[in-house]
Amino acid sequence: MALTLRTLTADDLAEFQRVVNASFLSDSVEDQLERWRGLFEPERHHAVFDGDELIGGGGIQTREITLPGAGPQPVAAVTSVGVKPGHRRRGVLTRVMRAQLHGLHEEGREAIAALWASEAAIYPRFGYGLAAEFARLEVPRGAEFHPGVSVDGERLREVSRDEAMPAMKAVYDDVRPGRTGWLSRLDAAWEHQFADTERDRDGLSAYHYVLHPQGYAVYRIKHDWRERGPRNELHVREIAARTDEAYAALYRYLLDVDLVGEVKSYTASDDPVVHLLDDVRLALRGRSDALWVRVVDVDRALTQRRYNSDVDAVLEVSDGFCPWNAGRWRFTVKDGTATVHRVDDAPDLVLDVQALGAAYLGGTRLAMLARAQRVSEVTEGALNAVSHALLGDREPHCPEVF
Ligand SMILES: CC(=O)SCCNC(=O)CCNC(=O)[C@H](O)C(C)(C)COP(=O)(O)OP(=O)(O)OC[C@H]1O[C@@H](n2cnc3c(N)ncnc32)[C@H](O)[C@@H]1OP(=O)(O)O
């Protein structure tokens, strides 16, 4: 039987979530459904049917993402992608990806899409490039800061979720416009991110909420009591602060919690805590892929962020999945602002749209991608010039999996 694709209605949520949960090898539970409902935009979700049977699909959340120098801008936040076991490798995902990306282009909606990938091999074929990584950090309890660190001496308090939430939202919204990769969060997204049922805890404690007048931290404890003394782990879920002093104060608090052996976090790859420490080697660190970005429309995407330096170069872009992007584009930056026009001129750089997505948030260097044979320089000097223009002041970071 031929497969069909359509957008969803509110009534489809339960079945859609069952299929997506099953695809992730998870059970479906009712309270989870209610949590999803607040984030569910049925008309932005596509599903594929085999006859009457929903066999797979994927969705978009309407969000903003902070871009280098340009603050929050629209992003199609791609989520809940899954295909029923037994119906894989029949092209279901490909149909959903096409409906999403071609739809965004045809309707002139978001100029970029972004996602977290369950497996890194899935999305490059659809033009997604690795734009942001996260760092895994482990710092032993009590690790000292270097002598020049100033913490502001404000009292930090552990409070209830109800007291913490409004303060957290206020801090987050103040900090977000300056943090490349951070997403807008509706109340439903906050509820989802900080849901705290027994199942969400995965054997760890409930969330602890720490407030500072200029910031907050949320953590769980993983118990580990040993004969030689407690080695409990403190897992940081999120930390944000309006000032560097408040950030240091929050970290100092976390590093001094009694009965803890190790403080663990998944954080920005340039989290300053490493350099707050007197002995930087005390911070064990690793990196993994986080946010993948897809440039939907080259011209609209490149003009909606700002740049580090002036440049004028012709980019020859290949794009097998979204052919309207393929061809030569003159990319000119003056005083941080770009203009982008289709041209027939000879190219200075040749690259795939995937490389453009990877470099788009200012973290992944085009010059490095050239060494990985993903970008070719035609005109000497063009590579370093464009690469430098794209770089951001901070590493992009996405503090939530959506
Ligand atoms: C943003 C998110 O939600 S990420 C979550 C993604 N979902 C999951 O990981 C859940 C478990 N996996 C699944 O549900 C499915 O296997 C999916 C969604 C990953 C793929 O769905 P399918 O319908 O089987 O993909 P489809 O048939 O369109 O495959 C397209 C191409 O991608 C390849 N591909 C598909 N899945 C994978 C994978 N996991 N790893 C590598 N390649 C893959 C296929 O081989 C195919 O290649 P081809 O065009 O050269 O033949």
TrEMBL record:
Which residues are acetyl-CoA-binding? 81-83, 89-94, 118-119
Keyword Repressor in annotation: no
What keywords appear on the UniProt entry?
Acyltransferase, Transferase
InterPro entries attached here? Acetyltransf_17, Acetyltransferase_Eis, Acyl_CoA_acyltransferase, Eis_dom, GNAT_dom, NAcTrfase_Eis, SCP2_sterol-bd_dom_sf
Q: Where is the N-acetyltransferase domain?
A: 3-152
Q: Which Pfam families match?
A: Acetyltransf_17, Acetyltransf_9, SCP2_2
Q: Does the keyword Hydrolase apply?
A: no
* Example of a GO MF term: aminoglycoside N-acetyltransferase activity
Q: Which GO terms describe its biological process?
A: aminoglycoside antibiotic catabolic process
Q: Name the catalytic site residues.
A: 123, 402
Q: Fetch the HAMAP family from UniProt.
A: Eis
Similarity comment: Belongs to the acetyltransferase Eis family.
- Assembly with partners or alone: Homohexamer; trimer of dimers.
PANTHER family with a match to the protein in the record: N-ACETYLTRANSFERASE EIS
- The name of this protein is Putative acetyltransferase
The organism that produces this protein has a lineage beginning with: Bacteria, Bacillati, Actinomycetota, Actinomycetes, Pseudonocardiales
